[in-house]
From TrEMBL, chains A, B:
It comes from Vulcanibacillus modesticaldus. This is Thiamine diphosphokinase. Residues 145-211 form the Thiamin pyrophosphokinase thiamin-binding domain. The lineage of its organism: Bacteria, Bacillati, Bacillota, Bacilli, Bacillales. It is an enzyme of class 2 (transferase). Transmembrane segments: none annotated. Keywords: ATP-binding, Kinase, Nucleotide-binding, Transferase. The keyword Glycoprotein does not apply. Gene3D superfamilies: Thiamin pyrophosphokinase, catalytic domain (3.40.50.10240). InterPro entries: Thi_PPkinase, Thiamin_PyroPKinase_B1-bd, TPK, TPK_B1-bd_sf, TPK_catalytic, TPK_catalytic_sf. The keyword Nucleotide-binding applies. GO terms for molecular function: ATP binding; kinase activity; thiamine binding; thiamine diphosphokinase activity. Its EC number is 2.7.6.2.
Length: 217, 217
């Protein structure tokens, strides 16, 4: 059996039309989360799954969804331990894809953004490559002993931060400021605003967890 | 000698007029950072110190500042290990105040936001209470064995996240969802969107470091 390639999660926060032109959107499974469902349907896309407490979705739309897609709708109470995006992530992980791409997930509510960053760990720990694709930022996490290749793109800056107290063996190749087996500790954000100078940059890590943020103004 | 009460850092990101009505702004020391200097001067406020590489400030303004405030201007090269806000934080710490309040510091560049969150640790480790006061978020960190009181305010939601791999002995009092000696681990953001139901909420912690984010829509 060929492993499913991509699951796309469209969640709250800022969603833009640009995200619809992402490669291979047609070939993946699409999960709409709460207000992301509204947004997808307004853009002529019916998600494969609908997840959320739907406390911020149009009630008429919700009734229509429940009627036509009853087997694809997962409604959760609004007071629960997990966020809606976390529930969507758990559904996505259960589909065992190679990649999970979260569109949206960033915006003015920093608490939601940080929660979404934590959720990336759940995918990576299941050996699924995952990314939050926001308007001004693309966010990944890198686990111990792993490496990631980042393509040079219109996200001009690549910053790395320790996501655990200490990260060690941080190696950056293809970057303006390369690094060999560096150590970083929380509280000292010296990995801000690096740039990829080759076609792509590779980040690898021996121990700890690294947060990788590509940004543009 | 009475200890200096407040140092205010006005930095890049989103700055709003509301921030000027903050209590006791007149009585504290004000540090302008790079574009924050522009913003302050446009609002009729001359900072006590000017910090940055000033790569994004009006050149005429910069020349005027250098002429009149030469002893208060700290210009750094634009390629350096520290961010401008970190240099301002180090200056603020050297003044040994009780509190450091960073205005701005949040915005669309998540890498800058995360860098600023890390920088808060430098103040707290020097026993200086510190906060990033953004437009939609107020951000603090809480060190091992410490507690913080958060006043109920127009920031409706209070979320907590582990900033180290594990945090233990997390106790929340005065909250809608209280907690006694809880344990949190990175990857599981179950502390999102709590609310203060008393006049104030108290958060205390035995081990690890906690990230506290108040948010509003």
């Amino acid at each position: 059996m060929t492993r499913l390639k991509n699951v796309y999660i469209f969640t709250g926060g800022t969603l833009t039309d640009e995200m619809l032109s992402y490669n291979n959107l047609d070939e993946g499974i699409i999960i709409g989360v709460d207000r992301g469902v509204d947004w997808l349907i307004n853009h002529g896309i019916t998600p494969d799954y609908f997840v959320g407490d739907f406390d911020s979705i149009d009630i008429v739309l919700l009734e229509r969804i429940k009627k036509y897609y009853s087997n694809k709708v997962k409604i959760y109470p609004s007071e629960k331990d997990e966020t809606d995006t976390e529930l969507a992530m758990q559904l996505a992980i259960s589909l065992k894809p190679q990649n999970i791409i979260i569109f949206g997930g960033t915006g003015s509510r920093l608490d939601h953004v940080i929660a979404n960053v934590h959720i990336l760990l759940q995918a990576e720990r299941n050996d699924i490559s995952s990314v939050i694709y926001g308007t001004n930022n693309r966010i990944r996490v890198l686990l111990s002993g792993k490496s990631k290749k980042i393509m040079k793109s219109h996200f001009s800056y690549v910053s790395i931060f320790p996501f655990t107290e200490v990260v060690a063996g941080v190696t950056l190749e293809g970057f303006k400021y390369p690094l060999v087996k560096g150590v970083m500790k929380i509280g000292f954000p010296y990995g801000v605003s690096n740039e990829i100078v080759e076609d792509n940059g590779t980040i690898s890590l021996d121990t700890g967890i690294l947060l990788i943020i590509e940004s543009k103004d």
